[in-house]
Amino acid sequence: MKARATVAAGPDRTADGASVPAGGSGAGDGDGGETRSAGRTRAGGVPEPRREQGGITWRQRLRRDRTLILMTMPAIALLLIFNYIPLLGNIVAFQDYDVYDLGITGSPFVGFDNFTRIFEDYRFWEVLVNTLVIFVTQLVLFFPIPIAIALLLNTIMSTRVRAWVQAVVYLPHFFSWVLVVTVFQQMFGGAGLVAQWLREHGHEGFDLMTDPGFFKFLVSAQAVWKDAGWGVIVFLAALAAVNTDLYEAAAVDGAGRWRRMWHVTLPALRPVIALLLVLRVGSALNLDFEQILLQRDQVGAGASEILDTYIWWTGIKTGDFGYAAAAGIFKGLFSVAMVLGANKVAHMLGEQGVYSKK
């Protein structure tokens, strides 16, 4: 009996006499067990694949997620072909680029001469200011409208009425800018319905489509009519995630409809509003090129010229591709600076923005 007890209590054997590692059982106890597991090898001295924290190797993870990976490959290929590979063409911003004879490989390098031309071009700075003025006008007049529409739709109890209103406000998003400009021309042009109605009733008509001072408000109104309904989707999704118990608790405490919206609904929308506002500020120089180009000749370049149309007229159309590429790089760097600045403001206001504060 004494000998059996000694064998059972031995450090290298189990109760039935089987041999085990000296450090304890194979299950692993704390750090020592994890170290032994990571250092195991297969027969012949080949190390086993390293296991992740969840107990699965990266090869097993690839095998498990191969369907999802295959589904994302076309999107990744399109992103590489149309977004990242063309970035290599930015080298023409540092060349006296000749697209017809020399090409990228034969065009001489001129350093930062194209950027110097941009900074010395007074017309470029005028266009930049005009672009920012149009952007600020659209930001003030356009950005709050999808939020207001979402709040109104959220108060409609009838599902059928809500679906009908959503369909009506979403529909203009699928119209081309040619159709949108045509509709506004037929409504607010010199021979439009509004001007004709005023003349029939003894008033003087007007032509908003050719008024340079009204142009920034005109393009803002067009953007509201076309895209405000589409922007509602994000805010309705955020409102759908709000816990209904909060509304019930606020109603029990005596809060009316406006106070529930102010203290429950709007705080729930704050993260989404901050995120979209940061992204909107980052695209300050990315106004709709087609929309502006279609109306450029009606009001003149002084009121309608934005950075994209200016680059197209002075760079691409005249063949000065180096100047156009340098202006494009400046536009990208400016947009990055705007995103970082807007995101910093979002952090100061207690919101996450595009990325969280470390």
Describe the structure.
The protein is an all-alpha fold and about 350 residues long. Helix content is about 65%, strand content about 0%. The protein has 18 helices and no strands. Helix 6 (about 115-120) crosses helix 18 (about 320-350), helix 12 (about 215-240) packs across helix 14 and helix 13 (about 245-250) runs antiparallel to helix 14 (about 255-280). The longest helix has 28 residues, at about 320-350. The N and C termini lie far apart (about 65 Å).
- The overall pLDDT average reads 81
> What proportion of the residues is helical, as a percent range?
55-70%
Order of helices and strands: HHHHHHHHHHHHHHHHHH
Structural class: mainly alpha
Number of strands: 0
Q: What is the global morphology?
A: globular
C-alpha-based Rg, rounded: 32 Å
> Which percent band covers the strand fraction?
under 5%
Task: Report the uncertain regions.
Answer: 1-39
The description of the largest β-sheet is: none
The count of helical stretches stands at 18
Q: How far do the termini sit from each other?
A: 65 Å
Q: Short summary of the structure?
A:
The protein has 358 residues and is mostly helical. The chain has helices spanning 2-9, 31-38, 58-64, 66-84, 103-106, 113-120, 122-142, 144-155, 159-170, 177-188, 193-200, 215-240, 244-252, 257-282, 289-299, 301-304, 307-316, 321-348. Helix content is 65%, strand content 0%.
List keywords for this structure.
358 residues; mainly alpha; 18 helices; 65% helix; disordered N terminus
